[in-house]
């Protein structure tokens, strides 16, 4: 039985690549058929003359298959599977599905692709067993198709994305000789394939066929001189570039064996390769040798005696195994030959080959050669210096080496929070790989986690340092540091896993977030030591983790806060070596269930807090109108700094009758809630996100694409009337994110009439529609008047009431923009409603304008105070300043760390700015 659905010609491969190298399906339909496709995820991409071009996002598993297929295409495999669901006939009427198939003259790649929506553990035991059971049948089918004389090396692969591999699965895969290819490794092969093209296929084979024979190199020998360099056996010879490429291997820092550090090579530079090829094509040659190291002792037959016993002439037999020669220096000269034309692409190159020197000796050679060359990134040499100083007599250098080694190992460990998160020199940083080794290492050292400088000439062990006979025990310290960081950051990741896996976009796992959390860990340990009178160094790691655990709840709280504008200010300013203790103090304020951490137990630098306010970390008022699905945190930021205690009261159900952007609800994340707003479109949008988060997000992505393609697309969407709930929700979010100043304004007919704004971002890196959906599933969503909501509340309910700030006599500069005005009579009706709610035993936190008439209205309701906020809603920047708002706690007492001032008497005027009405009539 023969294989079908294969692409074997260049034209067919190119066409297949064009279809696969995108993340959506596409087709053309007539205008009348669009409504039949829309419920199934299709949306209009562009309008043709007589038809419409529709697009539908592909599934994650489909995208992963295509991504790996495209990588095999770039590696130059001449035969590949066509279309999806490729099948190999193994027996009569029996077919085995293969996700990706690739073949050349020597090898066959059989790949199974596994992915998950979010980064999580996924047992592979059953899949590995089934895959292994089919290996013999698939191999037999290949022989039947290609002939008995075709005896390829078969590379059996599991390509994984968002899958945490357990040690059990890893061991099982090794036992069955099935290779696991992670996101990091796939990215690596994609990068070298783009740089080297088909020449990179040898690097791919070397990784997965290491140690296996290459029949084509049987008995290939070259004239050589055997000598000694620095008392090390070495060979000097010349051979074809293609032969060395077959057996050679570059142990790049991004694809390395964690147990064979140090690794030192940066990724090849495409521009340098082109220059090498042009140089050779123009008749140039390289008189200097490429430096390599044999991994297996080669055969050398003496041909001519020499008077010098250290110099022998003979024939050197090239190793005939994959990954048998490591390229120490000169990879660009070797791989540049692959870009030559067919007639002159295989020149002879000169080599100096060492006979099995250690990895450290290789790295020292590389560092010595490249120390003065600007083309080698200083960051690479800095990292290498740290690794090479493992046994240094200087304590600081040994600590540096331990930290570098720890980060390298954590980056390569399956299932670790840092797996594939540290970018290597030579590969461009990406959203998914946002960390750099020097930055993390510097923070670990400055946070005193391994050692502490007592003065210029002495040191003391840090909490993760282990001593042996009064000196640092490198191996024990490395293990303790790795285990401690793994435990701590596993906790951080568990708080907001999706955001952690988003890398830069998630605002937690990046070069500001991770160092901030490391410093925070150091401050927590210091606090534990001071409070309990203990030394963290003397504790077993499990006991240290147990001592730290009670303080992780405020750290979790902070992880939830990691959104863009809050993050930018707090991470840049607070989480630095001098300001981190202030951050600890602020975080612990929210952990009111820990009596030791109540205000006053830790030093609070009031000057720093004042600086926060000067830097306007109080971002936007909680009642601003911008609908922001990624959980706007305006109110929460204020709470963290000085007002969180305003919400510190026990309750069974959370109630918010003026929902708007739902900032407080997202911040507090109550277990049960009743949420309401008069804006029916707003509530319908929340309901749609709750029911169909993926559909809403997919349609929003389509809006993003079309918004950038067409200048009038905004107005076409504004005037449209979508068919489905998810489409209407996507329209609502799209308009709010791209309209002028984020306004929600309707005309007298109730039609949204805000013009297009200047922002082009429809999709944000922090979008988490699944998380929003999970939170809304805890709540009841209604679109009704506040009085209907509050009158059904009773004892056990806590209401956060943040109405439109309309002052007496309708002193509201935006009246003309509202379809229904929240008038002064509505203010009085609200006050009466809250009074009835208080009598039934309910509790409420009320915010309002700090106007004399409003202060008089709530004078006898409870505790009254004022807070300042930054006004950001004025049309001109110069008109934006600091204004005051009224805070009323009803039915309970609350402390706000002394920063909420007492409200003035009724006769005193208090400046306040009119606030722009929102989708619900709220400001």
Brief write-up:
The protein is an alpha/beta fold and 923 residues long.
What would you note in describing this structure?
This protein has 32 helices and 33 strands. The chain has 923 residues and is an alpha/beta fold. Strands 14-18-15-19-13-12-17-16 form an eight-stranded mixed beta sheet. The chain has an eight-stranded mixed beta sheet with strand order 28-27-26-29-30-32-31-33, with helices on both faces. It has a six-stranded mixed beta sheet with strand order 1-5-8-9-10-11, with helices on both faces. Strand 10, helix 5 (167-176) and strand 11 form a beta-alpha-beta unit. Mean pLDDT is 77; it is low at 256-261, 562-644, 808-819, 870-881, 896-900 and 905-923.
User: Hey, roughly how much beta strand do the residues contain?
Assistant: 15-25%
Q: Report how far the terminal alpha carbons are from each other.
A: 72 Å
Assign an overall shape: globular
**For the CA atoms, what is the radius of gyration?**
33 Å
Largest sheet: 8 strands, mixed
Number of helices: 32
Q: Helicity, in percent?
A: 25-40%
Average pLDDT over all residues: 77
How many β-strand runs?
33
The strand order across the widest sheet is: 14-18-15-19-13-12-17-16
Structural class: alpha/beta
């Amino acid at each position: 039985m023969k294989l079908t659905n294969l692409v074997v010609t260049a034209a067919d491969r190119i066409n297949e690549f064009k279809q696969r190298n995108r993340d959506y399906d596409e087709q053309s339909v007539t205008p009348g058929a669009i409504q039949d496709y829309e419920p199934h995820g299709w949306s209009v991409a562009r309008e043709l003359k007589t038809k419409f071009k529709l697009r539908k996002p592909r599934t994650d598993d489909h995208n992963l298959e295509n991504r790996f297929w495209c990588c095999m295409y770039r590696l130059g495999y001449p035969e590949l599977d066509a279309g999806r669901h490729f099948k190999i006939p193994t027996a009569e009427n029996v077919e085995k599905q293969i996700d990706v198939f690739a073949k050349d003259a020597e090898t066959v790649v059989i790949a199974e692709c596994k992915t998950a929506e979010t980064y999580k553990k996924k047992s592979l035991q059953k899949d590995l067993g089934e895959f292994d059971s089919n290996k013999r049948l698939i191999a037999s089918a290949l022989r039947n198709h290609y002939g008995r004389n075709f005896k390829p090396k078969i590379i059996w692969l599991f390509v994984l994305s968002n899958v945490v591999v357990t040690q059990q699965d890893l061991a099982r895969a090794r036992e069955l000789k099935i290779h696991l290819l992670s996101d990091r490794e796939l990215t690596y092969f994609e990068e070298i394939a783009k740089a080297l093209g088909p020449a990179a296929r040898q690097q791919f084979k070397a990784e997965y066929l290491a140690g296996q024979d290459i029949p084509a190199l049987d008995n290939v020998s070259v004239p050589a001189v055997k000598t000694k360099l620095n008392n090390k056996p070495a060979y000097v010879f010349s051979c074809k570039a293609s032969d060395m490429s077959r057996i050679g291997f570059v142990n790049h820092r991004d694809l390395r064996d964690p147990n064979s550090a140090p690794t030192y090579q940066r990724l090849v530079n495409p521009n340098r390769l082109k220059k090498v090829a042009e140089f050779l094509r123009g008749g140039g040659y390289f008189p200097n040798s490429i430096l390599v190291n044999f991994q297996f002792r080669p055969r050398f037959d003496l041909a001519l005696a020499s008077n010098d016993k250290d110099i022998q002439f003979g024939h050197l037999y090239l190793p005939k195994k994959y990954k048998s020669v490591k390229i120490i220096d000169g990879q660009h000269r070797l791989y540049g030959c692959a870009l030559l034309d067919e007639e002159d692409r295989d020149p002879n190159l000169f080599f100096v080959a060492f006979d099995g020197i250690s990895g450290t000796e290789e790295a020292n050679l590389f560092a010595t050669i490249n120390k003065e060359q600007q083309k080698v990134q200083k960051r690479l040499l800095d990292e290498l210096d740290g690794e090479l100083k493992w046994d240094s007599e200087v304590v600081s250098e040994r600590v540096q080496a331990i930290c570098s080694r720890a980060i390298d190992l954590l980056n390569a460990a399956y299932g670790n929070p840092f797996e594939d998160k540290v970018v290597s020199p030579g590969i461009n940083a990406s959203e998914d790989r946002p960390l750099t080794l020097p930055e993390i290492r510097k923070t670990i050292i400055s946070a005193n986690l391994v050692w502490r400088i007592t003065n210029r000439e002495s040191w003391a062990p840090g909490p993760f340092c282990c001593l042996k006979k009064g000196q640092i025990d490198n191996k024990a310290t490395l293990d303790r540091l790795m285990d401690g960081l793994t435990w701590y950051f596993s906790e951080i990741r568990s708080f907001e896993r999706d955001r952690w896996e988003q890398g830069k976009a998630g605002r937690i796992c990046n070069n500001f977030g991770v160092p901030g959390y490391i410093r925070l860990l150091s401050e927590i340990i210091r606090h534990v030591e001071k409070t309990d009178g203990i030394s963290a160094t003397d504790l077993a790691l499990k006991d240290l983790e147990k001592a730290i655990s009670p303080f992780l709840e405020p750290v979790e709280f902070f992880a939830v806060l990691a959104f863009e504008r809050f993050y930018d200010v707090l991470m840049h300013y607070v989480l630095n070596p001098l300001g981190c203790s202030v951050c600890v103090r602020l975080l612990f304020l929210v952990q009111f269930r820990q009596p030791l951490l109540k205000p006053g137990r830790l030093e609070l630098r009031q000057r720093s807090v004042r600086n926060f306010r000067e830097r306007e970390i109080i971002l936007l008022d909680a009642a601003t109108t911008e609908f922001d699905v990624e959980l706007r945190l305006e109110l929460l930021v204020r709470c963290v700094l000085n007002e969180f205690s305003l919400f510190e009261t026990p309750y069974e159900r959370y109630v918010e009758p003026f929902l708007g952007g739902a900032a407080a609800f997202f911040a507090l994340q109550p277990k049960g809630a009743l949420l309401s707003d008069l804006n029916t479109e707003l509530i319908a949008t929340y309901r749609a996100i709750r029911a169909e988060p993926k559909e809403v997000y997919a349609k929003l992505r389509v809006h993003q694409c079309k918004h950038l393609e067409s200048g009038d697309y905004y107005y076409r969407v504004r005037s449209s009337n979508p068919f489905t709930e998810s489409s209407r929700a996507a329209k609502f979010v799209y308009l709010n994110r791209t309209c002028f100043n984020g306004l929600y304004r309707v005309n007298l007919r109730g039609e949204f009439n805000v013009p297009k704004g200047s922002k082009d971002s429809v999709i944000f890196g922090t979008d988490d529609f699944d998380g929003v959906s999970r939170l809304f599933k805890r709540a009841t969503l209604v679109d009704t008047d506040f009085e209907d909501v509050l009158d059904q509340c009773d004892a056990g309910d806590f209401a956060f009431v943040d109405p439109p700030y309309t002052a007496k006599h309708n002193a509201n500069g935006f009246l003309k923009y509202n379809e229904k005005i929240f008038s002064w009579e509505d203010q009085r009706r609200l006050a009466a409603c809250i009074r009835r709610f208080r009598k039934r035993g309910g509790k409420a936190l009320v915010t309002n304008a700090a106007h004399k008439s409003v202060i008089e209205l709530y004078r006898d309701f409870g505790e009254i105070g004022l807070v300042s906020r930054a006004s950001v809603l004025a049309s001109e920047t110069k008109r934006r300043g600091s204004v005051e708002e009224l805070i009323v706690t009803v039915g309970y007492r609350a402390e706000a760390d002394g920063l909420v001032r007492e409200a003035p008497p009724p006769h005193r005027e208090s400046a306040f700015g009119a606030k722009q009405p929102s989708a619900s009539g709220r400001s």
